[in-house]
Amino acid sequence: MSPQNNGRSSLFGALFVPALILGGLIILAILVMTFSGGDSSPSRSASGDNVRTLDASTMTRFENEFDAIGESVGSADAPITIREFADYQCPACGAFAPTAKRIREELVESGDVRFVFFDFPLPMHAHAQQAAVAARCAARQDKFWTYHDRLFDTQRDWAQSDDPTSMFLDMAVETGVNADRLEQCVTQGGPDDVIARNQEAGKAISLRATPTVIVGNQMFSGVVGYDRIQQAIDEQTDGGE
After folding, report:
1. HEC readout, 76-90
2. Which residues, listed in sequence order, are joined to residue 53 by a DSSP beta bridge?
3. Model-level pTM?
4. Where are the beta strands (DSSP E) in the chain?
5. What is the pLDDT of residues 68-101, one digit of tens each?
6. How far apart are CA 46 and CA 44, in angstroms?
């Protein structure tokens, strides 16, 4: 082989390896963004491209199987059910939390909506599973929603901690939960099984992001505004007439 060909081969090798590494990094970044629930863009919104209609068989599975493993509030006879899959450490889920709370305070209280929350802790969030377990343990003391809201209110604080255990126990005191019982429940990992089943429900609908909000049979991936949710409700109930 001539010196010229050797030079070309060396140049090719020198360029190929960095290009391969760069391509891998780009693919990895896309995957992380897809399932991070908008870590680098907490205000991410659900656009028309992120909405799809769930088929009748999927809705039947929710009604007969999945809803029983979520945390629900509101009448089972409400005209429509709103379901949320979320990760307590996901910034986009934190951004949606005030809207979810408004839904519960206004639409659930009026009897127009039933609301069901499903856990979907993501593996890239170090404390998401522990937070979900703590909330489910609070539910065993009938304090789920109070503790749930407190987790989102203080997300930036505990998410940055190396070990948020003491913060989760402090939240118990703040929300009227017996801290000793909560600590015992968290240590024993009692809710781990139901959280895993929540995740299986999310996989069954090919969940692509957190939060995922299902209004009736309309599934929104990413943060969605209150007005858009109200529009989806009206389209599927008498309010759309």
Report:
1. CCCCEEEEEEECCCC
2. 218
3. 0.80
4. 51-53, 71-73, 80-86, 113-119, 212-215, 218-221
5. 999 999 999 999 999 999 999 999 999 999 999 9
6. 7
